[in-house]
Specification:
With 273 residues, this protein is α/β, with parallel strands linked by helices. Helices cover 30% and strands 26% of the residues. The chain has nine helices and 13 strands. The protein has a six-stranded mixed beta sheet with strand order 7-8-9-5-10-11, sandwiched between helices. It has a three-stranded antiparallel beta sheet with strand order 4-3-6, with helices on one face. It is globular, with a radius of gyration of 19 Å.
Length: 273
């Protein structure tokens, strides 16, 4: 186990996740190619890259849906909070994950309130699960925190994409995760839904929950995110402070187009392509 180090937040603790020389292969395809990354608790990080770059595969590796290839003496490190071995259910409590695949499974007759409560059981819906008063109380606190009380009795299949996504965030928060992990979080959102979603995400970031976001959109990177990792062809090729990474040169190389990157009040935008 790695010796705990003092983070920028003043806590002596192992990193939230520590990956070294991580390669993931499915069939004939190499999804991740020798990744090295360390992320600490309460860090806000964006993984930025084009579609097909490996962002979703990286998230699935965090959640141990995917496992790295191991060879003798290859120097692979695959640790979360200093541990190499985890129970998958415990990992689901440690990380709150919101993904397009998860949202797709909820296009059914389930109310927003039931979606949040289902997070206690990592289930889709409640079925025969026993709901305790403490669970009810926690779900209601989350509903109020996210300001979605007016929607809690509405069915998910009658909500807009943005409304449904906020309930999935609520579901991800029931176990007080160390980090909220978001995979392409603003796909299909209109301007109003995007504005509301961003405000919710900023509130969560300021509450002390870490944010790990995978996106192909520069404008998804909220001001609270200070670190950006650029990903392409299954590899990380730039990792650093946001203002040093989000440059014309780096973003142009990432997406293979000439761009001008502009910053406004902590938000970044690409123009000229």
């Amino acid at each position: 186990m790695k010796t705990p180090t003092t983070t920028e937040y003043g806590h002596a603790e192992p990193p939230l996740l520590e990956f070294a020389n991580i390669t993931v292969i499915k069939g004939e395809k190499r999804l991740l190619d020798r990744l090295f990354v360390t992320i600490h608790e309460k860090e806000h990080v964006a993984i930025l890259g084009p579609n097909g770059s490996g962002k979703s595969s990286f998230i699935r590796t965090i959640n141990r849906e995917f496992y790295p290839v191991h060879a003798a003496d290859d120097g692979v490190t695959f640790r979360i909070r200093g541990h190499d071995v985890w129970d998958v259910f415990d990992l689901r409590s440690l990380f709150g994950i919101v993904s397009p695949d998860l949202q797709y499974t909820y296009t059914r007759n389930v109310t927003g309130r039931e979606v949040i409560l289902s997070g206690f059981f990592s289930s889709i819906g409640l079925f025969n699960h026993q709901i305790t008063p403490l669970m009810e109380e926690k779900a209601e606190r989350i509903i109020q925190f996210l300001e979605i009380g007016h929607l809690k009795s509405r069915r998910m299949d009658s909500m807009s994409s943005g409304e449904a996504r906020r309930f999935l965030i609520g579901r991800a928060l029931v176990h007080d995760p160390k980090a909220l992990i978001l995979d392409e979080p603003t796909n299909s959102l209109d301007l109003h839904a995007l504005h509301t979603f961003r405000n919710s995400l900023r509130t969560i970031a300021r509450s002390g929950v870490g944010i790990i976001m995978a996106t192909h959109n520069l404008h998804d990177i909220i001001p609270e995110i200070s670190r950006v990792i650029l990903m392409k062809n299954g590899r990380f090729f730039v990792d650093g402070q946001k203002e040093e990474v989000l440059t014309d040169s780096h973003i142009g190389k990432l997406f293979n187009v000439p761009v001008k990157v502009k910053e406004e009040d902590g938000w970044y935008y690409a123009t000229g392509y």
